[in-house]
Design goal:
29% strand, 5-stranded mixed beta sheet, alpha+beta, 19% helix
């Protein structure tokens, strides 16, 4: 499945030591690495951008090697500098075509705010994959060529899902309240991105407070004696990760997150 979405991308290292876990009567071997739900590290880079994402059960169809080949073919076809694009893994708890969490790979505009270069990739994805297939076949990369051929076969069977005009799951953590006082706030224990003049960092929400100066959040600090408070507009939601819940400004009622 291919779809456009706004997402976040993190740059970090991975631990490569495998381990075994027992679940539902089955022993499973898990290896830390890209796409592993057990190697989630705090975000060290956060940009709001656009890209083309795809996910399939077959691991060879969502490898970064395959995505880099497609990105190179796209750059050669459209005269785009490779430095203006990026390749990364993505994970979402809320995919646009289902309810189960997914992880896959994405080619995205490597600039905050997006140059929207990948719109052309979304519009011509099968043709670009064909070009990448021809290039890898000419280079003698049979394994990669086979994976690209499998991807082309899958593309003929599934529709593309286009993102709406407004990015889903990003932006400010609280919206204007409704006439009856309801608004959404970040749930305690949820992760979010704090943006300051020093950069961005992933933080954990402990609680929220509505003050005369507006909504504020209490964040978890490495020192238990420090009370870390920030304004709501300093936080960004992490698409597919940050949990929000309804809060009533007038009554103080807080509903459970859906």
């Amino acid at each position: 499945m291919i779809f456009n979405l706004w997402n976040y991308f993190s740059l970090h290292g991975h631990i490569n030591t495998p381990f075994t876990r027992f679940a539902h009567g089955i022993f499973k071997i898990n290896t830390y690495g890209p796409g592993s739900s057990f190697s989630q590290q705090p975000l060290t880079r956060f940009i709001r951008t656009t890209g083309v994402c795809w996910f399939f059960p077959q691991s060879q169809l969502v490898s970064e090697t395959l995505a880099n080949s497609i990105m190179q073919a796209f750059c050669e076809q459209c005269g785009i500098q490779p430095r203006d694009l990026g390749v990364g893994r993505f994970y979402s708890q809320n995919p646009p075509n289902g309810t189960s969490p997914v992880n896959g790979v994405c080619i995205f505009d490597n600039s905050n705010g997006s140059l929207r270069l990948t719109e052309r990739l979304a519009a011509n994805f099968p043709a670009v994959v064909n070009a990448a297939l021809a290039a890898e076949t000419a280079r003698g990369n049979t394994g990669l060529a086979d994976a690209l051929e499998q991807l082309l076969a899958q593309l003929s069977d599934v529709p593309a899902v286009m993102a709406g005009g407004t990015p889903s799951g990003t932006g400010q953590p609280a919206v204007a309240s409704t006439p009856d006082g309801w608004m959404r706030v970040i749930a305690p224990g949820a992760k979010a991105i704090l943006t300051t003049t020093s950069g961005t960092e992933e933080v954990t929400i402990l609680d929220h407070f509505y003050t005369p100066s507006g909504l504020q959040y209490h964040l978890q600090h490495s020192s238990p004696t420090v009370r870390w408070m920030v304004q709501a507009d300093a936080l960004e939601l992490i698409n597919g990760v940050t949990v929000t819940q309804p809060y009533n400004l007038m009554t103080g009622e807080l509903k459970q997150a859906a």
